[in-house]
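Question thread 4412

I'm putting together a teaching handout and wanted feedback from people who do this every day. The idea is simple: show students a protein as raw sequence, then show them the structure tokens that encode its fold, then repeat with a second protein so they can compare. Below is the first pair exactly as I plan to print it.
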Amino acid sequence: MVTDSRQAMNSGTTMTPTYCRLCEPYCGLLAEKDAAGELVRLHPNRDHPVSRGFACNKGVSFHYANKDPRRLALSPAPRERQA
């Protein structure tokens, strides 16, 4: 498990601070992204002033929702010609 920015850079990934929006505490997270910018994993952020490294399983596992094949893929819909 990558726990800090230096380890992330050595493994070819980057860590971006963010927060969980699923419930009221807004726990601090670190988003681990690969070289292509795709989300790989979410980690609790120990430097977050409120959550101090705590994040529930819902927040840490939410990266799976981003890659779920049942997820609605939003893209611009083509306009229909009006008569």
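The second pair follows. I'd like the answer to focus on this one:
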Amino acid sequence: MLIYDRYDVWQVSPDGSSAKNLTDGVGRRDKIAFRYVRLDPKERSIDPAKPLLLHAENEETRDSGFYRDRINGGLPEKLVMGAKDFNNPTKAKDADVLMFTASRFDEFPDIWVTGPDFKNLKKVSSGDAQRVQFNWGSGELVSFKNADGVPLKGLLLKPDNFDPKKKYPMIVYIYERLSQGLHAFRNPAPGTSINPTYYVSNGYLIFMPDIVYTTGYPGQSAMKCVLPGIQAVVDKGFVDENAIGIQGHSWGGYQIAYMVTQTNRFKAAAPGAAVSNMTSAYSGIRWGSGLPRQFQYEHSQSRIGGSLWEYPMRYFENSPLFHTDKVQTPLLMINNDEDDAVPWYQGIEFFLALRRLNKEAYMFSYNGEKHGLRKRINQKDYAHRLQEFFDHFLKGAPAPEWMEKGIPYLQREKEKEKYRVADQDEHPR
């Protein structure tokens, strides 16, 4: 059977008595992750006499492509490799013809065809013809070290016609590791989080730093990675330090809610579906699956390392709610009433604490929506709120009426009609 380590493909006997590195350590040597491509969806076993097609991705540069290898020996042979996301390989049923997609941040994932040797590549779709009509931007990797000296990378997206002599507002978007999305093509569309393509095309920098964690200290782990990552970009000289915002959803939202209790680095922050109180969330259930929430905090994504009774101070220290008095950053929050992953009362707890302490905060909750927005009208509505929020604090645009007067409950559906614009008018300018 075939198994993987971080980089290479191994042939291992079922009883574990023997193991052979099929890619001969090339993956680990060159920081390339090799993965077997199953071209026949009905395939249940691998013919050792036939060559293997491997997808390859360089962990340092995020270049990708395809290699060929054989079970019976020989080094993996590079077929195609480049600064793109080569993906979705498929083989014709009755011909030696392969089809795949190739994309970058600024290149639509058009369809290509080739033979098994990948020597003659032919593009057979032209989706990128629509994209070139718009300002789109470009992506690059930024290297930095976190506060503990761990080497990390971040994805920096820059506008078209970028001028390094100018100062740009920047929005930081976080989750965990995002730099692998360097060559991901991102359609401009509304949603629950910022759309990087739209913001870049409207004069923002977008930065997505990778985050690594120390068990027991998820909030501080984010601080130790995100802030040095931001500084690495600021040191390049083209960021307006007084116009840095941050946005994230779910786990990203939690980390933002924590960070704004510890730093005033951000001019504005938009934590979405954030857990604010780990102690009250701990003994709940995930309504979508029915699973208890304890596992998530103890040993899953929240990484506390044990139960509430083993480490009560860890739960307290990592809960933004208990440090709300330190918040100095204006916040825009979204917590929907049917969220089946993060209970919406987590947003209510945080928002009411912020309001009680006279902090500037705005909370949106869309009736009937779950963890992420699904209804198009709600996606459009919140996308516009996000844009107006960041434009006000990072670009100096006038505050929209909803920030100054709020939105009466009975007017909420009528309020959304303001943003019912034709889809063709929503493309990047």
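Top answer:
Good format. For the second protein you could add a caption like this: Residues 138-425 form a domain with the Rossmann fold fold (CATH 3.40.50.1820). Residues 422-429 have pLDDT under 50 and may be disordered.
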